[in-house]
Specification:
Structural class: alpha/beta
Bound molecules: adenosine monophosphate
CATH architecture: 3-Layer(aba) Sandwich
CATH class: Alpha Beta
Radius of gyration: 16 Å
Largest sheet: 5 strands, parallel
Helix content: 55-70%
Order of helices and strands: EHEHHHEHEHHHHEH
Length: 192
């Protein structure tokens, strides 16, 4: 299996690049943000709970997020692999994912981390708000909180994978295709 954690701050291009990776490697795309938004749209209990955190730019609690992710993974029989997009976002989530995958005799192949500086992120999120319809993209205070939460709680997750020799930084500035090509090269160097 090819199991990729696609990592990076909000606005780094994880969603866009996930599409490219799925097309090339036929992986299952699991975006915790997308799953939460589908639940919000469907007005489920999970959606109501998630919305109260997402609207403020806070993380949804680990216990809720981890069990949701695990049940999504369990929906697939014999997948070629997964792209985890927006998960794990805390060290506890990273540990839980490792344990869960090892119970299935699987593991994370690599973390590919899209590197984009903060000023560029703010510009991208501001522009994305015009088309995404996401309330959490539209409010500068919420955007700043998401960046702060990323720096405080999510950035340390990179060290978890660095410690396992699975971290690969990718320059996230350039055209969509340029960045995809960097990701493809990194993956092909790892699985070669
Ligand atoms: P995203 O679409 O990845 O930008 O996620 C949108 C929002 O969903 C985040 O700002 C969080 O509030 C929530 N969220 C997504 N993934 C996670 C996660 N792994 N852990 C906690 N909250 C999450």
């Amino acid at each position: 299996m090819l199991n990729i954690v696609l990592f990076g701050p909000p606005g780094a291009g994880k969603g866009t690049q996930s599409e490219k990776l799925i097309a090339r490697y036929q992986l299952v795309h699991l975006s915790t943000g997308d799953i939460f938004r589908a639940n919000i749209k469907g007005e489920t209990e999970l959606g109501k709970l998630a919305k109260s955190f997402i609207d403020k730019g806070e993380l949804v609690p680990d216990s809720v997020t981890i069990s949701m992710l695990e049940s999504e993974v369990n929906k697939f029989e014999n997948p070629k692999g997964f792209i985890f997009d927006g998960f794990p976002r805390t060290s506890a989530q990273a540990q839980a994912l490792d344990q869960f995958l090892s119970s299935k005799n699987a593991e994370i192949t690599c973390m590919l981390a899209l590197e984009v500086e903060e000023e560029e992120l703010r510009v991208r999120l501001y522009n994305r708000a015009k088309t995404s319809g996401r309330p959490d993209d539209a409010d500068p205070e919420v955007i700043q909180n998401r960046i702060d939460v990323y720096n405080r709680e999510t950035a340390p997750v990179a060290d978890f994978y660095r410690g396992q020799g699975k971290y690969k930084g990718i320059d996230g500035i350039g055209s969509i295709d340029e960045i995809s090509n960097r990701l493809f090269e990194a993956i092909e160097a790892i699985v070669a």
